[in-house]
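During the no-cost extension, the postdoctoral fellow (Dr. R.K.) reprocessed legacy sequence entries with the updated structure-token encoder. One reprocessed record is reproduced below for audit purposes.
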Amino acid sequence: MTKIIGLTGGIGSGKTTIANHFIKANIPVYIADDEARKLMQSSEIREVIKKTFGDSIFDDAILNREKLSQIVFSDPEKLKLLNLIIHPAVTKNFQDWVLNHKKAPFVIYEAAILFESGSYKNCDVIITVTAPIESRIQRVIQRDNTTREQVLKRIHAQWNDDKRIAKSDFVIENLDPITTKTQIDKILKILNI
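Re-encoded structure tokens follow.
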């Protein structure tokens, strides 16, 4: 049976960089945030989001993710509501995806909120990616063209590293490319991949 490796870490920690290392090692990788973005474009989910958050987050029937982010990362209750809409769809999508990769001994499920969503319960192994807070903030500001304040709101909406590490099997400190690659190789060896 295919084993599921959960890959998580706070925003800006470098999960995508780590995921790309696993892809190079021929391990199938499911990026939950990317799939959630796609699923949010379905008419069914868009309607539920519109009913829950109103028309103001849509520009000509197109979901304005930035407006939605400002709402949910300023109000924990609204973030919970959005997660209740999105996570069941992502879970179902992932289950279907795993069936398409059932010949692989391992697959990676990459999710920023692996623990918060409860998805960690379906993982056989969990890897947490960490990085210094300032590096994370700068990465997200550059990547998302956003403000420090917005990044900090998102960081505070997630579990902190200590909490994630306590529930993880492995930790990758994403400090520099060489050290990071060495840590990944060590994990792959331990897992016999």
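The chain has one domain: 3-190. The chain has a mean pLDDT of 94. The remaining legacy entries will be reprocessed before the final report is submitted.
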